[in-house]
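Consider the record:
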Amino acid sequence: MASIQKANSPKTSALTEITSILVPVDGSAASQDALGIAAQLAKRTRARIHLLYVIEVPRTIALDATLEGELQRAEDVLDRAERVAESFGVSVAGELVQARQAGHAIVDEAVERGVDVVVLGVSYNRPYGRFELGRHAQYVLEHASAQVWLIRSAEPSAH
């Protein structure tokens, strides 16, 4: 039987110190799972959630170019994510940025916002029979100064 931590234990007090959470969203099931977990954590700790949608702009296009289709999709994803977070009764704000690489933008935003934790959804991906983390998650894990929590989607056949 698992033991229950006392309210003043180090593990519990570390959670109560979380006041700001960054959740990158892209509309995928993995990012929705990450948002659900982040919202539960925010409700428990009274933390604020910062949602981030990153439009990756190819180097062949100006970074500040208007990408109408992408902008509309990003706004739709952010609107849905904000409604989900608000349904948990937590404080939430969404932001849309354009960047060359999403991983860099996530780390930069985490620093700029001074977040305590980044909750990042990772899709179940097994090309060539071996699980791969993906370049964005790998970059965030290596470079973020805040805690990074990865929420991996269930294996597709597990449903």
